[in-house]
Amino acid sequence: MTLWWIGDVVLLVIVLPVVVYLLRGVLEAAKSIVPTVRRTATIANAGSKDLDSAALLLTTREQVKQTVAGVADYGGSLDVILDDADDEAQRA
Amino acid sequence: MIVPAVIAAGLVMIVAVLLIVLALVYYLVSTIVQLRRIAAGLDDVIAGVGEIVEKSAPVNDVVTTINEQLDAGVNLLEGLLVQKAGMSDAIGLIDGLYPGAAAAGLRNFPESTDIDPPRIAEVYTKGTLTLARLGREAPIAAASPEGEVLRNVEGGSLAARELYPEVRQTRPEKLPRSPVIGTDAPVQYEQRDDIGAPRKRLPTRS
Predict the structure, then answer these.
(1) Per-residue DSSP letter, B52
(2) Are A12 and B12 spatial neighbours (Cβ–Cβ below 8 Å)?
């Protein structure tokens, strides 16, 4: 009979507070994760929007190709029109 | 006497177990709710990250292609400049346009960093260049080749005026008027018949 009462006291004074303490800690940890995840989601969405202009790189690539091709054409023409520095030096 | 005490102890135990179960239920349900919110938030995160991955996938290839094209352009322009102007003049031209750039040299010509850039590619006024082309009274860099550049951004015309004869630099109120020519000119000259005609006597050879 005494042991039974001791068991009751242990349940009420030790086991119940420990269980409550541990479960409350888990709940607080879970609650603290939620705003962090929300901020992360917001940042991920913002980063995704920032990359919307990445598609324009395709246009940039084509324009760079055309520009370099134009420069190459000019360079070829200049190569024909202008004498090389070595040729001028020999002529001098 | 023993029976009521046993019943009381049993009731207390039941109450204690019930309290523990209630605590378990409350906190575990609350934790489940929070974990579901976390799962929903992570779904949003995964969606955003997926978009980022999808949108940034071609960036590497595109940027690599752009860099290759620009590299080819730089190689072309550097090679053409060095081939046509020579290494020394090319470095001088670059340093004239972008002061200090000669120290960096040309990418494909490491020896270009050792060259002392010649003093070329300086910006002169239009009048100075015109006189230089005419070949008269244009001592561009001749008077002071190591001096300052003949460049005056705020008063380029004054810089050009200094290249004219001394009389113009004194800023006289009136300069001699240019002679009037034409049929209405105050001084008429008779037309000479010998101008344009064959020489009467050839110059003697010494």
Answers:
(1) H
(2) yes
According to the model, what pLDDT value does residue B68 have? 93
ipTM of the complex: 0.73
Chain B closest-CA separation from residue A37 CA (Å): 6
A68 burial via Cβ count (<10 Å: 0-12, 13-18, 19+): buried
Establish if B64 touches chain A: CB-CB under 8 angstroms.
Answer: no
d(CA A90, CA B179): 48
Bridge partner residues of B4 (DSSP): none
Q: How big is chain B, counted in residues?
A: 206
pTM of the model: 0.54
Instruction: Note whether B6 contacts A1, CB cutoff 8 Å.
Output: yes
Highest mean pLDDT among A54-63, B111-120, B122-131: A54-63
For chain A, say whether B113 makes contact (Cβ under 8 Å).
no
Which residues, including other chains, have CB under 8 Å from residue B59's CB and lie 6 or more apart? A54, A57
Q: Which tokens belong to B66?
A: 């752009």
Does residue B162 have a pLDDT over 70? no
Chain mean pLDDT for chain B: 78
DSSP H or E stretch at residue B177:
none
Report yes or no: B11 at the A interface, CB cutoff 8 Å: no
Q: Are B56 and A56 in contact (CB under 8 A)?
A: no
